[in-house]
Amino acid sequence: MSEVVHFRGKLQEVIAKDNESMQDVAKRILDEALVEKKDYHEDYIECLLDTSYKNVKGYYSEYVLINERLYKVIDCESIDPDDDIIKAEVNPDKTISFEVKYYNGGCGFDEAVEEAVNKIDKKEFVVKMKDGTEKKVLAPNELGAKLVALYGEDKMKEILNIEQRSKG
Fold first, then answer.
1. For FRET with 81, which of 1, 25, 66, 166 sits at 20 to 30 Å CA-CA?
2. Cα separation of 45 and 42, whole Å?
């Protein structure tokens, strides 16, 4: 059954050693993993791509072949396709890249982008509450995280004298 999936990750090119062909590289990786090529595999690359699946709330291959180059998936996380994506980062040229995925009945584009930009200078902290429970909060520092957990973000900004941007 097909379904919507969402992955975020990082690829690293697999570099051939001294005159190795891509087939040689694939065979070396398979040998290191103690995997033998089956008769139904056309070649070592097909075998590698076919046998390198991992299960992370859905399947992805540990190796991918793109434009005749072999890449290893060195980081991959499965993201709930129903979750919102609200993220942004500052680029070297001072522009801001953003990615937003949200239910547009819950907020508008400008609100989603604003939330993403507001998260840039915040980190996630886990604060232990008095009752022993833990609460995850986004804040600029550990003190801010404790204040957010206890009093909310507006009170934290007031206590730490953080100016809020005026809207409009």
1. 66
2. 8
